[in-house]
Amino acid sequence: MNKTGILCIAVLAFFASCKQKEQDQQSFLDPSARDTSVRPQDNFFMYANGTWFKKTVIPASESGWGSFYTLGDENQQKLKKLLENVSSKEHEKGSLEQKVGDLYASGMDTVAIEKAGAAPIQPMLAKLNAVKDYKQLIDFVTTDYRNGAGYLFDMGVYPDDKNSSKNMPNFYQSGTGLPEKDYYFRTDSASKKIREAYVSYIQKMLQLTGSDPASAQKQAGQILELETTIAKAHRSPVELRDPNKNYNKYTVKQLQMMMPDLGWPTILNNMELKTDTVLMSQPGYYQALDKLIKSQPLDVWKEKIRFAIADHYGRYLSSPFRDARFDFYGKVLSGSKKQQPRWKIVSRQVDNGLGELLGQLFVKDYFKPKDKERMQELVNNLQTVYRSRIEKLDWMSPATKEKALAKLTAFTKKIGYPDHWKKYDDVTIDRNNFFASAVSTEKHAYKEAIDKLGKPVDRTIWGMTPPTVNAYYNPGFNEIVFPAGILQPPFFFPDADDAVNYGSIGAVIGHEMTHGFDDQGRQYDNVGNLKDWWTKEDAAKFSKKVQVMINEYNGYTVLNNLHVNGQLTQGENLADIGGLAIAYQAFKRTKQGQDTVKIDGLTPDQRFFLAFAQVWRLKDRDEMMRTRITTDPHSPEMYRTNGPLSNMPAFYKAFNVKPGDKMYRPDSLRVKVW
């Protein structure tokens, strides 16, 4: 479970920052972004970002624009420089530089890619065409899974949720192409248009792989109908939040008895899974697939798989495939007007395929050891404050507190980049064949996963690459992770005053820590096992407090008639609220947090809250916002800002918020958990 967040803080009182005169201190905030015509007491997000919001034009190739986008763009520019340099030279075969440079060069060779057309996937299509019965169909699907393509199956190898020292294969629901199940059933006009566009996309891909227009149109309709039936067996994003319902362990014999038509011994053999026991997060999907597989015409299944092949591998193929993918995923679902420059697309593919090779080049040039050391200090400081807050909770019993503190103490903290880099010895990169090279990285990722079976769990591995602008909490490892990519402005300023760093990256450190105690994370213990360590009374109190927050966020409206889903977003909202409170308390222990010296006319507390609001600024296209509301566990950024602040007494004091102001929330309705 990777959760969005950020890392960084500024030094605490014991590492006091230097106090400078107001006129000598650089701001680090963006005064030009503020809209002083908006009262901070009514809409702090727009007060902090309103002028920026009005003036910002979302780039045509993007679905939105804001802090994550700007830093992501800066990091990609850095990667471009690295990749152009390394790809322009000849390197020893098999070296880091050869693999990274040649993968980038092959992806940039659009002449060769266009010349190849659909040829790279023709062998797969020929094998699919030769399928004569349902058993051969399942064999084809599960064998090709080793290449990284999941058509009807989705599987990963992770620590067993109830025995985090043992790796297990875990199967997840699959088989559909729209973002989540309700896209198949909603009757509003926007949803109908999305389904129509999806059918058009399927039709294009079928034509590109051999169907005539009339046949492709009919086949696309049949595929949508089949996926609609499959979607009925899916769990919704809210239902997927329950880790206990997602934990189902079966022997292979039990699977075969439950689902005889799929043939599980053969499936596991095809996928090279040497195990007699598997986990299945959503068994209802596979039970439905078992009943459905022979009730649908074989030809319909084959057309669905043919479309899935084109959909999955299309990103590596010629422009007709890439254009069709963009027209649906980019334009329809995200609202982007044009595709990103080729170099951006390829640099991202290099990061996805060879992330810890490219990451070594990135951190060497763009991440300083002193920044990693300071980040470690900041994380430790936040952890100290969190411990104090748990100890003082008035609603939690001593028994549960003891377990909560043990879990907090056991947090593993990963900052910047791994201590031990992954190896990619089995990856073959051919400068003259982008498709084969890209598929080689996918095969490697799968082999890396299944090689974990039967071996001790390696807790040093990372779930994100160093250039990534993101952070996460992993409940199975009980760890918080902050890649180098996010440890830069506007999230982390090495030379900024504490108010800015605590308000920006500090809030994100707190955010990731709080994920360890949100509605999902609280169900895992200090070593990462799914285990109930709460008293019944404390669990009931927690749920009652969280319900206040769910009700609050359910009331937030987006795009006139769309509401935030408080159930779906509860984990992220709780992390936002808790993270801000922890960061603020840590800030108040610094020298700047304890004095009243103004910078740019702003008190230290005002700077803290402005930094928090400005780091979350984001402007989404309407299409992207609609997709996010139904699928994203994060609330829209306006409410990621105003929501936590409206629950924060210190914010009320800093900006003189009173009853009658729109940011005001009665004390009885304020969220008070962590």
TrEMBL record:
<dbReference type="InterPro" id="IPR018497">
    <property type="entry name" value="Peptidase_M13_C"/>
</dbReference>
<keyword id="KW-0645">Protease</keyword>
<dbReference type="GO" id="GO:0004222">
    <property type="term" value="F:metalloendopeptidase activity"/>
</dbReference>
<feature type="domain" description="Peptidase M13 C-terminal">
    <location>
        <begin position="470"/>
        <end position="668"/>
    </location>
</feature>
<dbReference type="Pfam" id="PF01431">
    <property type="entry name" value="Peptidase_M13"/>
</dbReference>
<dbReference type="InterPro" id="IPR008753">
    <property type="entry name" value="Peptidase_M13_N"/>
</dbReference>
<protein>
    <submittedName>
        <fullName>M13 family peptidase</fullName>
    </submittedName>
</protein>
<feature type="domain" description="Peptidase M13 N-terminal">
    <location>
        <begin position="40"/>
        <end position="418"/>
    </location>
</feature>
<dbReference type="InterPro" id="IPR024079">
    <property type="entry name" value="MetalloPept_cat_dom_sf"/>
</dbReference>
<dbReference type="Pfam" id="PF05649">
    <property type="entry name" value="Peptidase_M13_N"/>
</dbReference>
<keyword id="KW-0862">Zinc</keyword>
<keyword id="KW-0482">Metalloprotease</keyword>
<dbReference type="GO" id="GO:0046872">
    <property type="term" value="F:metal ion binding"/>
</dbReference>
<keyword id="KW-0378">Hydrolase</keyword>
<comment type="similarity">
    <text>Belongs to the peptidase M13 family.</text>
</comment>
<keyword id="KW-0479">Metal-binding</keyword>
<dbReference type="GO" id="GO:0005886">
    <property type="term" value="C:plasma membrane"/>
</dbReference>
<dbReference type="InterPro" id="IPR000718">
    <property type="entry name" value="Peptidase_M13"/>
</dbReference>
<dbReference type="InterPro" id="IPR042089">
    <property type="entry name" value="Peptidase_M13_dom_2"/>
</dbReference>
<dbReference type="GO" id="GO:0016485">
    <property type="term" value="P:protein processing"/>
</dbReference>
